[in-house]
Design goal:
The chain has 128 residues and is an alpha+beta fold. 29% of the residues lie in helices and 41% in strands. The protein contains two helices and ten strands. The strands form three sheets. The chain has a four-stranded antiparallel beta sheet with strand order 1-4-5-6. A hairpin with a 2-residue loop joins strand 2 and strand 3. The longest helix has 25 residues. The relative contact order is 0.14.
Length: 128
């Protein structure tokens, strides 16, 4: 009887530890970007980036471990399905430059990150 009660007491602790390990493993994903790209007034160099979600799940950070370049954004529900598990960087091409448009983290996504460059491109096209 004591062993059954002990096993029942240990089961929730083991499940919580397994859930924590799964959450920690999904908290960071590495992506290789083969080109330089601007984001929020900074130029991020080509290289290996880590996409990391904060503990609350509300923010995502893009980190280059080789060069001290980091940026963070708010995640919101978007067009990906709530059950989506993909982590992706989406780029637009403006002229000959790749511009980070958004970051998808599972069923969440950042707002459009390249609004200023798109606005500048429209003004240039209109001759202003």
């Amino acid at each position: 009887m004591k062993s059954i009660l002990r096993n029942l007491a240990l089961a929730p602790a083991l499940m919580a530890a397994a859930a924590l390990m799964t959450t920690s493993a999904m908290a960071e994903t590495a992506i290789k970007v083969p080109f330089n790209f601007p984001v929020g007034g900074k130029v991020f160099p080509a290289g290996r980036y880590v996409v990391e979600r904060d503990d609350s799940g509300s923010f995502v950070s893009l980190i280059n471990r080789d060069v001290p370049v980091v940026a963070s954004w708010v995640l919101t529900p978007g067009s990906p399905a709530p059950t989506e598990t993909k982590i992706a960087l989406k780029f637009d091409e403006v002229g000959h430059t790749h511009v980070l448009q958004s970051i998808q983290y599972g069923g969440l996504i950042t707002s459009k990150l390249d609004k200023n460059l798109e606005h500048q491109a429209n003004q240039t096209a209109e001759g202003r």
